[in-house]
Amino acid sequence: MEKQYSLKDLVTMKKPHPCGTNEWQIIRMGMDIRLKCTHCGRSVLLTRREFERSLKKVVGSVDENDESQ
Predict the structure, then answer these.
(1) Which of 10, 25, 35, 45 might form a disulfide with 59, Cβ 3.0–4.6 angstroms?
(2) Is residue 63 part of a domain?
(3) Distance CA 35, CA 29 (A)
(4) Contact predicate 23/14, CB 8 Å
(5) Which helix (H) or strand (E) holds 8?
(6) Which CA distances in Å does 46 have to 22, 34, 49, 63?
(7) CB-CB neighbours of 2 under 10 Å
(8) What Pfam families has UniProt attached to this entry (predicted)?
(9) Is residue 67 part of a domain?
(10) Domain that holds residue 54
(11) Pick from 60, 64, 28: which is nearest to 43 by CA?
């Protein structure tokens, strides 16, 4: 079963980031997927295949109002 995800979704990955969290926000989608760490703000670029392999679950989406603050 394929997990459904879209731009601005919060996702949990299998391996944590070195800062200690495994919560990420999808900030770019295309052939590659760019993720932004919700804790430290760093971003990483993964191929779609790498992303889908290491995706644990989709938590939800971010509201536009929350992001601008």
Answers:
(1) 10
(2) no
(3) 9
(4) no
(5) none
(6) 15, 6, 8, 24
(7) 5
(8) DUF951 (PF06107)
(9) no
(10) 9-58
(11) 28
User: Exposure pattern of 22-58 as b/e (b: 16+ CB <10 Å)?
Assistant: bebbbeeeeeebbbebbeeeeeeebeeeebeeebeee
Note whether 7 and 62 are within 8 A (CB).
Answer: no
Q: Token digits for 59? A: 């938590």
Q: Residue 26 and residue 69: Cα distance in Å, rounded?
A: 18
Q: Is residue 2 part of a domain?
A: no
Identify the sign of the CA torsion 14, 56, 30, 24: negative
pTM of whole model > 0.70?
yes
Q: How many domains does the chain have?
A: 1
Q: Residue 69 falls within a domain, yes or no?
A: no
- Residue 15 amino acid letter: K
Q: Using the predicted structure, report yes or no on whether residue 64 has a pLDDT greater than 90.
A: no
